[in-house]
Automatic annotation (TrEMBL):
<protein>
    <recommendedName>
        <fullName>Lipoprotein</fullName>
    </recommendedName>
</protein>
<feature type="signal peptide">
    <location>
        <begin position="1"/>
        <end position="22"/>
    </location>
</feature>
<keyword id="KW-0732">Signal</keyword>
Length: 156
């Protein structure tokens, strides 16, 4: 009788244990939670950026993965390079996603989904091709003032 109980119990244990063991590798990887610098001051954003440009953006044309999140990629038509080096007149720019917000990538809207001339604070591309905003904050994409004056100091 004891042998039969062990025989019945073993398949039950395997039935419970095997799915639990298999779920580990199939479970989605956790997303990264990033703490961003406060670059709401344009002077801070200018200092932190690898490049600062004036230009216009169009609608998102695709996406790339950033921090395990699909980030929208826009073409940025560059009219002036204020800081850094960009050889192209049109560059792909990823709109850095907000992390740890559940299923919403841009809770306040995509910062690059704007019209008109803008000042954009950029991080150099890790993949050799796609630039990105230095943080997901909307202060990384500023409307160009009507008088064309930049809202930050370019020296130093």
């Amino acid at each position: 009788m004891k042998a039969r109980r062990g025989t019945v119990l073993l398949p039950f244990v395997l039935l419970v244990a095997v799915p639990a063991g298999c779920a580990g590798p199939l479970a989605p990887e956790p997303k990264s939670c990033v703490s961003w610098i406060d670059d709401s001051d344009p002077d801070v954003a200018y200092q932190e950026a690898d490049a600062v440009v004036v230009g216009t953006t169009g609608p998102a044309t695709g996406s790339i993965e950033m921090f395990r999140i699909d980030a929208a990629v826009h073409q940025l038509a560059v009219t002036e390079v204020v800081k850094g080096y960009l050889d192209e007149v049109s560059v792909p720019v990823a709109s850095t996603p907000v992390t740890c917000t559940g299923s919403t990538t841009y809770p306040e809207g995509d910062p690059l989904d704007v019209e008109g001339a803008v000042i954009v604070f950029l991080s150099a591309p890790d993949d050799g091709a796609t630039w990105s905003l230095i943080t997901p904050q909307h202060t990384n994409v500023l409307p160009l003032p009507a008088d064309g004056r930049l809202p930050f100091e370019t020296g130093g």
